[in-house]
Amino acid sequence: MATPRFLTLTDVAEVLNVSLSQVKALVRSGDLLGVKLGGRGVWRVEDSELEAYIQRMYAQTRESIRQGATDLD
């Protein structure tokens, strides 16, 4: 089965293992790009945008570790 192009905010929360409110905050801040689709204006995140966000978080983590951050909590 193909991966859907657009994910619900609930699906994104599940992928990232965070709360729905945290995903809404990421979209609201522009850290994670979302789009309102359909007549009811339901928010969705394109799978490529989610992957780009994850890659940015990996890059930020690598930089933090490079600068000496070792706290894994």
Give your account of this protein's structure.
The termini are far apart. The chain is 52% helix and 15% strand. It has helices at residues 9-16, 20-29, 47-66; strands at 6-8, 35-37, 42-46. The chain has three helices and three strands, in the order βααββα. α1 packs across α2 (20-29). The chain is elongated, with a radius of gyration of 14 Å. The chain has one domain (6-66): Orthogonal Bundle (Multidrug-efflux Transporter Regulator, Chain: A, Domain 2), CATH 1.10.1660. The relative contact order is 0.16.
What fold name goes in the CATH topology slot? Multidrug-efflux Transporter Regulator, Chain: A, Domain 2
Structural class call reads alpha+beta
**What is the count of structural domains?**
1
Q: Tell me the strand percentage band.
A: 15-25%
First and last CA, distance: 36 Å
Average residue pLDDT: 92
**Can you identify the CATH class?**
Mainly Alpha
The major sheet is characterized as: 3 strands, antiparallel
Question: Which helices and strands, and how do they pair?
Answer:
Blueprint: E1 6-8, H1 9-16, H2 20-29, E2 35-37, E3 42-46, H3 47-66
Helix pairs in contact: 1-2
Brief overview:
52% of the residues lie in helices and 15% in strands.
Give short descriptive properties of this protein.
three-stranded antiparallel beta sheet, 3 helices, alpha+beta
